[in-house]
Specification:
With 699 residues, the chain is mainly alpha-helical. It contains 21 helices and 11 strands. 49% of the residues lie in helices and 6% in strands. The strands form 4 sheets. Strands 3-4-6-5 form a 4-stranded mixed β-sheet. Strands 9-10-11 form a 3-stranded antiparallel β-sheet. It is flat. The relative contact order is 0.13.
Length: 699
C-alpha cells in the first residue's frame, strides 16, 4: 500500500466504505419516510381541491394510517439501534495510576505515529491486542481524548464535526509477562496506529451504526413471552438483519482499509524489532494455550483457580526453551526487562486476569468463595493434583460398589476391605459370564452419588475427574493431537495454535501476528450476538456424557465390564456436575482487593452464557474410564512406593518418583481398558515396586 499526496490509500478506501455504510442508513430512513411523504401529498391535494372524491378520501386515510405505523415502527427500530448496549469484550481495566509507565509508553508511541492516544488500557486473558470503542452511553463517559485532530489528509470535514473519543487499547496479558518492553512496543505499534482512522467521524459513525444493528439483533433474539412482544422482536430482528446484510461487504472492506492504513503508518516505528517480536507472539500463543488446557483446566474442575496464570506462562515457555531446539535463543531474552515491570502491582493484575480467564474458559464465579478459591503454584501439586487423583479414585470405587463388585481383590489380606487397585484390576480382567448384563448401564441413585463416610466428600469442590499424570489420555486439543511423542520433543508448540473463538487481529489497525491472526470484526463483535457468532458447544455434559451415540461407538472396542464401568462413571460425573459445578451467571464482579484499581469489567458484558470460550469438547466414556484408572494407579504409587504428585508446566499433572517424572503409563492403562489385558500395567507397577493389593487413602 503506497501513499498518495500524504494521505494513506487505505484510509481513503476506509472512508469511502464508511460513506457507503452511511448511505445504507440514509436509504433506510428514506424508505421509512416514503409513506409519510405520500400521505402529505394526498392531504395537500385534498386541501387544495385537486384530489377530491370518495376514492381519494379512502386512499388518504389508508396511506395516512400506513405512514403513521411505518413511522412508529421506524422510530422504535431507530431507538433500539441507538440505545441497545453493544457487545463488549470481557477485560480487566488498568487505571493510569496502576501503570503510569505503560500509559507513558503508549502515549509516546501514539505521538511518534501522529495519532490520538488510546483513551484507556485494558487487559484480556488471551494472546491478542486490539482497539475497542466504549463510547456508548451505557458504558459510561470515556476519558476526554487529548488530540482532537482528524485523520491526516481528511482534516477539513473532521474539524467541522465533534471530536470522536479514542478507543480503548486491549492488550493480551501473556504479552506483558512474556515479552520484553521493546518487543511489546513493537507489537503494539500497528494497533495504536488504528486510533487515527478511529478518530474520523465518518468511520466512527459507520461503526456505531453497525454495532447498533448488531446489538438490536441481540435484543430481538432474546425473545419475549407475550405474542405482541414476540411480533415486535421478530420485526426488529428482520429489519436489523436486512440492514446488516446490506452493510456487510462495505464494513468488511472498511476494516481492511483501516488495518492497511494503520500497518503502513506503523512501519516507521520499530519495524525491524517487530519482525523479531512476531516469534514471541507465536510462542505466547502456544504456551498460553498449553497452560490453560493442561494445567489450569484440572484446577478449575476441582473448584480452584490458579491465581498467577501469567507467571505460569513464563515458566511454561522457559521450560519450552530448554526442551525445544527451535527456542535455543529465547532464554537469553529473560535478562532483559519484562513488560510487566510497567505495572505498579503486577501480582494484583495477574490475579484479576486469572480470575477472568477462569470465568471465560470454564464458567466459574466472579469472586472467591468456599468452593471457588485461588491456589498458588507452590500448592498446586498437593491441592490440585493429589486431590484430583484421590477424588477420581474414590469415585471409581463408589461406582464399583453400585455394580456389586466385591471389596477384596486377589492377593488381599483376609479382613481387608479397603479400596485397592487389585479390586479394579480383577474386575476388568475377570471374564464376564453374562456380557449382555454387563453392558447394561448401571442405575446410579442420589444415595449412590453421596460419598461413603470416611471415604470421599465432594462438598465444596467440583470433583470432575482430574487429568492423568501426563494428560496424554485426555481428549487431544487440536493443536496438540500427537500425544505419543516424547515430552522432550516439543516442536508442535512452535507452530500456529488453533484459537478458541477469541478475537484476533484488530479491525482498528493491528497487523496480523504472522500466521496467527485473521481479520478482526468491527468493534463489539467479540461476544456472541444474534446470528453473528457461532454458539459455544454444549456444556451440560462436558465431563463426558455424550449427547448422541458417539459414546457407544467409543466403547464398542472395550470389554463388557469396561463399558459398564465407563457408563457408571459418566452418570456419576453428570450428577456431580449438575449438583456442584460453580455457576458464574448473575454473580457481580468485584476488584481483587482494596486499592487495586483493577477488576473484571462485568458490567460491560453479558455473563449469562458462561463459559464464553470453552476449552475442550466433552470427554468420551473411554477417556473418563482411562482417567479414573490412571488416578487409582497414581494413588497406589503414592501410598506404596512414596511417589509424589508434581506439576509439569507443559503437560500438567505428573507423577514423580525420587524427584523424577515416571514413565508414561497411558499405553498400559489403555491395554487394560480396551482388551482387558493387565499384563503391561502389572509389569509397569512391578518395575516401580507398586503393590496393588495395599489399600490406598482416598479423599
Amino acid at each position: 500500500m503506497t501513499a498518495l499526496g500524504g494521505v494513506e490509500m487505505g484510509a481513503l478506501a476506509a472512508r469511502t466504505r464508511a460513506l457507503a455504510v452511511l448511505r445504507v442508513r440514509s436509504r433506510a430512513l428514506a424508505v421509512a419516510l416514503l409513506p409519510a411523504a405520500a400521505a402529505v401529498i394526498l392531504l395537500v391535494g385534498g386541501s387544495t381541491g385537486h384530489l377530491v372524491g370518495g376514492g381519494w378520501d379512502v386512499l388518504r386515510w389508508v396511506v395516512s394510517v400506513l405512514a403513521l405505523l411505518v413511522l412508529l415502527a421506524a422510530a422504535g427500530v431507530a431507538l433500539v439501534v441507538a440505545r441497545a448496549e453493544p457487545a463488549m469484550t470481557p477485560t480487566v481495566t488498568v487505571p493510569e495510576e496502576s501503570a503510569p509507565e505503560l500509559y507513558r509508553m503508549v502515549r509516546d508511541l501514539a505521538d511518534r505515529l501522529d495519532v490520538p492516544a488510546p483513551s484507556a488500557i485494558a487487559l484480556t486473558p488471551d494472546c491478542d491486542s486490539w482497539l475497542e470503542d466504549r463510547t456508548h452511553p451505557l458504558h459510561g463517559p470515556p476519558p476526554v481524548d487529548r488530540d482532537d485532530d482528524g485523520l491526516p489528509g481528511l482534516g477539513d470535514p473532521a474539524r467541522r464535526r465533534s471530536a470522536v473519543a479514542a478507543p480503548v487499547l486491549v492488550i493480551g496479558s501473556p504479552f506483558l509477562w512474556w515479552m520484553r518492553v521493546g518487543e511489546l512496543r513493537a507489537v503494539l505499534a500497528p494497533v495504536v496506529a488504528g486510533t487515527g482512522p478511529s478518530a474520523h467521524p465518518d468511520i466512527a459513525a459507520a461503526r456505531r451504526f453497525i454495532r447498533g444493528l448488531d446489538a438490536a439483533v441481540a435484543v430481538a433474539s432474546a425473545g419475549r413471552r407475550d405474542p405482541l412482544s414476540r411480533a415486535a422482536c421478530a420485526g426488529l430482528g428482520w429489519v436489523s438483519r436486512l440492514l446488516l446484510r446490506s452493510c456487510r461487504r462495505h464494513a468488511t472492506e472498511m476494516e481492511r482499509g483501516v488495518a492497511a492504513a494503520a500497518a503502513e503508518r506503523a512501519q516507521a516505528v520499530d519495524y525491524g524489532l517487530r519482525i523479531v517480536a512476531q516469534e514471541q507472539v507465536g510462542l505466547a500463543y502456544a504456551g498460553w494455550d498449553r497452560l490453560l488446557t493442561r494445567v489450569a483446566l484440572p484446577a478449575w474442575r476441582m473448584g480452584r483457580w490458579p491465581s498467577r496464570l501469567d507467571v505460569g506462562v513464563v515458566a511454561a515457555l522457559t521450560e519450552l526453551s530448554r526442551r525445544d531446539r527451535l527456542a535455543e535463543g529465547f532464554a537469553s531474552r529473560l535478562g532483559e526487562r519484562p513488560a510487566c515491570d510497567l505495572l505498579e502491582e503486577p501480582g494484583v493484575v495477574d490475579e484479576a486476569v486469572s480470575l477472568l480467564a477462569a470465568r471465560l474458559f470454564h464458567g466459574g464465579p466472579a469472586e472467591t468463595r468456599p468452593d471457588w478459591s485461588p491456589v498458588g503454584w507452590e500448592d498446586y501439586p498437593e491441592e490440585v493434583v493429589d486431590r484430583s487423583w484421590r477424588t477420581d479414585a474414590a469415585r471409581l470405587h463408589r461406582v464399583l460398589d453400585t455394580l456389586g463388585v466385591r471389596r477384596t481383590g486377589a492377593g488381599t489380606a483376609p479382613g481387608t476391605d479397603g479400596p485397592t487397585l487389585a479390586r479394579v484390576l480383577d474386575h476388568l480382567t475377570t471374564p464376564d459370564p453374562d456380557p449382555a448384563s454387563a453392558l447394561a448401564p448401571p442405575t446410579v441413585t442420589d444415595a449412590d452419588a453421596d460419598p461413603a463416610p470416611g471415604t470421599h466428600s465432594a462438598s465444596g469442590t467440583t470433583p470432575t475427574g482430574a487429568q492423568a499424570p501426563h494428560a496424554d489420555h485426555a481428549t487431544p486439543h487440536p493443536a496438540y493431537a500427537d500425544h505419543d511423542a516424547p515430552a522432550e520433543d516439543s516442536d508442535d508448540l512452535a507452530g500456529p495454535v488453533a484459537r478458541r473463538g477469541a478475537p484476533d487481529a484488530s479491525g482498528d489497525g493491528q497487523a496480523p501476528h504472522g500466521d496467527h491472526a485473521a481479520p478482526h470484526p468491527p468493534y463489539g463483535d467479540h461476544a456472541p450476538h444474534g446470528d453473528h457468532a457461532a454458539p459455544p458447544p454444549p456444556r451440560a455434559d462436558h465431563h463426558g456424557t455424550p449427547a448422541d451415540d458417539e459414546d457407544d461407538d467409543d466403547l464398542a472396542g472395550t470389554t463388557a465390564r469396561g463399558a459398564a464401568l465407563a457408563a457408571g462413571l459418566s452418570a456419576q460425573l453428570a450428577r456431580e456436575e449438575a449438583r456442584e459445578r460453580p455457576v458464574g451467571a448473575g454473580v457481580p464482579s468485584s476488584p481483587p482487593g482494596p486499592g487495586a484499581g483493577t477488576g473484571p469489567d462485568a458490567a460491560l458484558w453479558d455473563d449469562r452464557a458462561l463459559p464464553l470460550l470453552p476449552l475442550q469438547p466433552p470427554r468420551t466414556g473411554r477417556e473418563i474410564l482411562t482417567a479414573h484408572i490412571t488416578a487409582m494407579v497414581c494413588c497406589a504409587a503414592m501410598d506404596t512406593v512414596g511417589a509424589a504428585p508434581g506439576l509439569d508446566w507443559l503437560d500438567g499433572p505428573a507423577l514423580l518418583l525420587d524427584g523424577a517424572r515416571t514413565a508414561d503409563l497411558a499405553p498400559s492403562v489403555l491395554s487394560l481398558v480396551e482388551t482387558g489385558d493387565p499384563g503391561p500395567l502389572r509389569a509397569w507397577m512391578t518395575e516401580l515396586g507398586i503393590r496393588p493389593e495395599k489399600p490406598v487413602r482416598l479423599v
